[in-house]
Write a structure and sequence with these properties.
39% of the residues lie in helices and 15% in strands. By secondary structure, the chain is α/β, with parallel strands linked by helices. The protein binds 4'-deoxy-4'-aminopyridoxal-5'-phosphate (PMP).
Length: 433
């Protein structure tokens, strides 16, 4: 496989872009080798700088739902650009996008558009703190809510609970009110809330976690979050930056029938352009400036090009689209399981509709601890074998795979072959580790 051009670009990038990338996971650190520079995408396919073709299962980390360069998205964003790409004044397009989100998502009475998922979650907790007059934030191990300071407390250890930062540059004061509990652990959560619930401004959760691989929230766990937040008058935030408009038109909340007070969005609602949103109950949302005292602003917020692209996506979300992606997900799941079984490799596949991931373990994976107990060191070899067989998988064992509406039967066939070869490549490997 020729990757000469990618390697040269990476060498150049290392000189001027830190680590050669603009977001860390793109650097391929956990799979080894050098990153592939992507030149072009169309439908389910992408091409790297050396013209190698791949079926894409990373899909801009879930942001691409209809497929790359979808004609409706291209047309809408191009037409928007012809009229000017930013005004810093309200536009009809952003209004239409806010209406589309509100119509689709049961709990989204009002919407504020921002520029990234990070901004959305950062604003959501500020809003929750402003609304409740409390400081405490509860989050869960293995969940990711972007890179604002108060979320960067180390997940997974007792130290996290003490608010010791896991990123350099985050003062302890920024995370001292953040408590990290175990995902899907009802007992731990309830006993915490029974003791400290009245100090908690917000509980934030990925209802379907997608940042430690896919780990769906148990219904009982999410119900417990809803119940305890209501009892303690604190704000329940569903971070649906990945799951929003991905697992259903009504997000994960629609799938579970459990509704948060606030929801954060990103990815899909921008059709591949930078975007984020906070949405929720009007009585809470109205605490944002200019109606309320919680400040939030953005030069490019509600950008008309991103809004037009997002609107083009949301306008095409017929139910059939989710059914088709779910079918494809089901097929992928069965291919993985049978290829693994064929080669004597233990796997657990977690999947919600079009998002899925494979863990190298025979045990169920329901928490970050379970994720850490799987054999992550097998992933690098698996990843490179997939790449060599035309599958662009996420370059990290902690990320999820995605289907788009544009994947087709040929892609599935290609995936099946690539999986068979890649699991066979692992056959002797798993005894080594
Ligand atoms: N929340 C979740 C659940 C996410 O998956 C992400 C990004 N992967 C974010 C927040 C942060 O979004 P962004 O990268 O757009 O800042």
């Amino acid at each position: 496989m020729n990757t000469k051009e990618s390697q040269e670009l990476y060498k150049r990038a290392l000189k001027v872009m830190v680590g050669g990338v603009n977001s860390p996971v793109r650097a391929f650190k956990s799979v080894g080798g050098t990153p592939l520079f992507i030149k072009r995408g169309m439908g389910s396919k992408i091409w790297d700088a050396d013209d190698n073709e791949y079926t894409d299962y990373t899909c801009s980390w879930g942001a691409i739902l209809l497929g790359h360069a979808h004609p409706d998205v291209v047309k809408a964003s191009y037409e928007a650009m012809l009229n000017g790409s930013s005004f810093g004044a309200p536009t009809k397009t952003e209004l239409q996008l806010a209406e589309a989100i509100s119509e689709s998502v049961t709990s989204a009475e009002m919407v504020r558009l921002v520029n990234s998922g990070t901004e959305a979650t950062m604003t959501a907790i500020r809003l929750a703190r402003g609304f409740t007059g409390r400081k405490g934030i509860v989050k869960f191990e293995g969940n990711y809510h972007g890179h604002s300071d108060s979320f960067l407390s180390k997940a997974g250890s007792g130290l996290a609970t003490l608010g010791i930062p896991s990123s350099a540059g985050v003062p302890e004061g920024c995370v001292s009110d953040t408590v990290t509990l175990k995902y899907n652990d009802v007992d731990e959560f309830e006993s915490f809330m029974d003791q400290r619930g009245k100090q908690v401004a917000a509980v934030i959760v990925e209802p379907v976690a997608g940042n430690m691989g896919v780990v769906p929230g148990d219904k009982g766990f999410l119900l417990s979050l809803r119940k305890k937040c209501s009892e303690n008058s604190c704000i329940l935030i569903f971070d649906e930056v990945i799951s929003g408009f991905r697992v259903s038109k009504n997000g994960a909340q629609g799938l579970y029938g459990i509704y948060p007070d606030l929801t954060t969005f990103g990815k899909v609602i921008g059709g591949g352009f930078p975007i984020g949103a906070i949405a929720g109950k009007a009585e809470i949302m109205k605490h944002l400036a200019p109606e309320g005292p919680v400040y939030q602003a953005g030069t490019l917020a509600g950008n008309p090009v991103a809004a037009a692209a997002g609107l083009a996506v949301l306008s095409r979300l017929e139910d059939g689209l989710y059914d088709k992606m779910d079918e494809y997900g089901k097929s992928a799941e069965s291919y993985i399981k049978s290829a693994a079984r064929e080669n004597g490799i233990s796997v657990t596949v977690n999947r919600v509709g079009s998002m899925f991931s494979t863990f190298f373990t025979a045990q169920p994976v329901k928490s970050f601890g379970d994720v850490l107990n799987s054999k992550k060191d097998l992933y690098g070899k698996f990843f490179w074998s997939l790449i060599q067989n035309g599958i662009y998988a996420p370059p990290s064992p902690y990320e999820s795979y995605f289907f788009t509406a544009s994947h087709d039967e040929t892609d599935l066939e290609r995936l099946k072959c690539a999986l068979e070869i890649s699991f066979e490549a692992l056959k002797n490997e798993q005894h080594i580790h």
